[in-house]
Amino acid sequence: MSSVFISYSHKDRPFVERLATDLKAKGLHVWYDQWELKVGDSLVDKINLGIKFQDFLIVVLSKSSVKSEWVKKELNAGLIKELQERRVVVLPAVIEDCDIPPLLSDKVYADFRKSYSTELNKLLDAFPGYLFPSGVGISERKALSRNVYLRNVITTNVLDRIVRP
Fold first, then answer.
1. 108-112, long-range: CB < 8 A, 24+ apart
2. Is the pLDDT of residue 158 over 90?
3. C-alpha pair distances (Å), 103 with each of 72, 82, 99
4. What is the pLDDT averaged over residues 136-159?
5. Any idea which fold 3-163 has?
6. 91 partner at 20 to 30 Å CA-CA among 37, 51, 66, 120?
7. Torsions phi, psi of 26, nearest 5?
8. What is the pLDDT of residue 127?
């Protein structure tokens, strides 16, 4: 099961709450500060560990988040992890018109300004084990049997071994 850290501005909390809930419902382990941080926790320590031990970092891009110092630090940590591990780690998700950070300008992003469900499906396609075309809606994915999902996971693992011996 893939895991993901969500980096965002607290001004975007309603969107992020929905996204975190939907990702969790799809079987991903979601590090969302509202669920992970407890009274007395060290913010720096918990966030460092959250980014370090999650497979991916979704950065929610909005006018507020691109100005947030916390989001900038979390994004930098995610990009460094991406360079060190030589794989995609940072997954941008745009929720409103804003200045995309230069280091993300060459990345394809989920554009939630268009359609929430379509872009959620595109985001899910980035996670290993989700070999469903972006055109397959959430309701259709729910209708698929566990066997179909497991076959797709097995196919992914076999393809990974062929492509990356």
1. 109/61, 112/15
2. no
3. 11, 12, 11
4. 48
5. Rossmann fold (3.40.50)
6. 37
7. -90, 5
8. 86
- Residues carrying an active site annotation: 74
The pTM score is 0.78
**Do 67 and 41 meet the contact criterion of CB atoms below 8 Å apart?**
no
Q: Give me 145's structure tokens.
A: 């049997």
What dihedral angle (degrees, nearest 10) is formed by the CA atoms of 42, 48, 51, 57? 80
Q: Which long-range contacts (CB under 8 A, 24 or more apart) does 140-148 make?
A: 141/26
CA 112 to chain centre: 13
How far apart CA 66 and CA 47 sit, in angstroms, is 18
Task: Locate the domains of the chain by residue range.
Answer: 3-163
Q: What is the pLDDT of residue 129?
A: 66
Q: How confident is the model at residue 27 (pLDDT cuts 50, 70, 90)?
A: confident
